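Good day; I would like, with your permission, to put a structural problem before you. A protein sequence and the structure tokens that stand for its backbone fold form the material at issue. I would ask you to consider whether the tokens describe a fold that such a sequence might reasonably adopt. I set the record out below, with my sincere thanks for your time.
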Amino acid sequence: MEFHAFKSFGEMSAAAALAVAGTLREKPDCVLGLATGSSPVGTYDELVRMHHEEGLSFARCTTVNLDEYLGLAGTHPQSYRFFMEKHLFSRVDVRRDATFVPDGTAADPAAECAAYDARLARLGGTDLQLLGIGPDGHVGFNEPDDVFTPQTHVVDLAPSTIEANSRFFASETDVPRKAITMGMKGILLARKIVLVASGAAKRAKIDAAFSGPVTPRLPASILQLHRDVTVFWSET
């Protein structure tokens, strides 16, 4: 694991964007695994700048997102499909039919999960997976549990996750209680993992994840088993 510390969120985001851009330039038809939440927003903003000012192209790549709230349509302002459209897809030259986010309104969520894994397998995994880390150490929506779940699955969101995400909704009661998330196998299939985070609390979780035992009670700890993880962290 490589660890890079920065004073500001902007500096951290620029460094993480360079890592993503490097994959795009080296392999224009790459598969990018994408994350949502506040941590990667600066990275997406910098990638958009690079697209407009430096000619960085997304035209040949495929994107696969980690997760989606169960019950939210892609047009809902708090859905992760909407998030990706707002922060990246609508601002670059990516093909919409090459952007994949779990369908939160699928009539059969289990079938949607299986289909998502099948698509990821057909793609051969991701070339680069962008991750954040939750307040309880989750990656994607893989919450602390007794076991690591390898497949894409429906998860009950932990109270700490609901509380943390409530800032994006009118109230905590509006936050969905379930989500579809890529499992640990899908995440670890990535050839390279880039994790972005900021603040002292996230630093403590990162330190615990990479210096302690590998345990499903701290989901991010499984990243110790991956051969190529780079962490970008900022103080603010």
